[in-house]
Design goal:
This protein is mainly alpha-helical and 137 residues long. It contains eight helices and two strands; from the N terminus they run H-E-E-H-H-H-H-H-H-H. The longest helix has 22 residues.
Length: 137
């Protein structure tokens, strides 16, 4: 995670859909969807649906690393469970969006499968089940 902070400062600000982005918008969305506390192991349905509608217009170069960061060892299990739910939603939405074409989200999470795979043996079903579904996607 520390290395990504260095890379972020070296990456030029880009324009997405007319809005200037340095990844703060995407990171904030992920932080809102995957807070380290709460009562449920998945983000609120309305926020997840709103995110699903927005994801085609977001930059995968910012969204994917933010989600991967939320899965890091040491983060509360509930935060990791929420991040896996968001990843699952992203993969589903973008599979429909790209229909057979190159999907940068699927490519990223496939390339990072070794970081997701240990979660398939997590003690909590709320982490284990979505981790297995993400890897099978």
């Amino acid at each position: 995670a520390e290395a990504s902070g260095v890379a972020v400062s070296a990456i030029p600000v880009t324009s997405i859909g007319g809005a200037t982005s340095n990844g703060d918008f995407e990171r904030n969305l992920i932080q809102e969807l995957c807070p380290p506390g709460g009562m449920k192991a998945e983000p609120p349905e309305d926020k997840l649906e709103e995110f699903a509608r927005a994801v085609p217009s977001l930059n995968p170069d910012w969204v994917c690393p933010a989600l991967l960061d939320a899965l890091e060892e040491g983060n509360p299990w509930i935060m990791r469970a929420k991040a896996l739910c968001v990843i699952e939603t992203v993969l589903k939405v973008m599979a429909e969006h790209f229909e057979g074409g190159s999907n940068p989200y699927a490519d990223f999470f496939h390339a990072c499968s070794e970081e997701i795979e240990p979660l398939t043996n997590h003690a909590r079903i709320a982490v284990k089940s979505p981790a297995r579904r993400v890897l099978a996607a």
